[in-house]
Structure prediction request, 118 residues.
Amino acid sequence: MENETMIDKEQFIENFKPFDKEVVLEIIDIFIQEYPERMQELEKNIREDDFDSIRFNAHSLKGVVANFIAPEPKDLARELEERGKNNEAEGNLEVFQELKEKTSILVDELNELRKKYQ
Prediction:
């Protein structure tokens, strides 16, 4: 599990090649800064069975992690989005915990990738 990676780094570098280093750093930094609040809000939505907010916040998170070529967190966010759309409550917390774990690895990898752009 230690060696588990979330980001397809080659694809990430390829996708962000046209951008200035400052732009890439800004995109990474914004996500890292917003990440704790995003996760807190999504967990609150799940605990309150607020399906519209689950759908909205999971969709938003899915779009952001997709930018980083991170298929696992993206798929988990998509699953929560679908569950919100279908008013499903059973199992949401388990999916969220896995999403939180994978997204935490993603944040660590982004912090490592940041160094390449400094």
